[in-house]
Amino acid sequence: MKISRVFAIISFFLTLLLSVSWVTANNSSQEGFLECLESHSEPSNPISAVLYTPENSSYSVVLQSYIRNLRFNESTTRKPQLILTALQVSHIQAAIVCSKIHGLQMKICSGGHDYEGVSYVSDVPFFILEMFNFQSINVSIENEIAWVQVRAILGEFTTELQRKVMFIASSLEFVRQSALAAISAAVDMVT
């Protein structure tokens, strides 16, 4: 009886010790990741302003705004170690570099529908890179180039493209009408 009691006490303390060391290692790796993000982003656009960790009061609100399927909003579901709502390209670059360095899985959200939970559920430690703010569209007809950011939707792209094409078409029509008027005036002067 005494041996089983001693064994139970040793098991309890061993479990407690392992739990404390795991939590400490997890916190230090998260702190290292945060330091990495800070050091790899531009000081003029601090990344700390767009980071949400479980210690932030708004973390739960931000996280729940992404979850489209409530079955993934349970206490047993693994939560991201942090949410990064990028505002600058340097924030995205820092996230990529630091996730590689620290071996942390990155899940990317861009505001779309994710009812399967692909962007906010994982079996391994992860963080969310939210790219909601990247939705610009830049069309250059002259260079035959279009830059479309991740959050832009197809309707916005086609509208911008049509606007550029219509501007060129109306410019060409103006040039055609002006040329016809000039030819007509030249013909009138000759006759």
Automatic annotation (TrEMBL):
Keywords: Disulfide bond, FAD, Flavoprotein, Glycoprotein, Signal. It comes from the Eukaryota. Residues 1-25 form the signal peptide. Its cofactor is FAD. InterPro entries: FAD-bd_PCMH-like_sf, FAD-bd_PCMH_sub1. Belongs to the oxygen-dependent FAD-linked oxidoreductase family. This is FAD-binding Berberine family protein. It comes from Forsythia ovata. The lineage of its organism: Eukaryota, Viridiplantae, Streptophyta, Embryophyta, Tracheophyta.
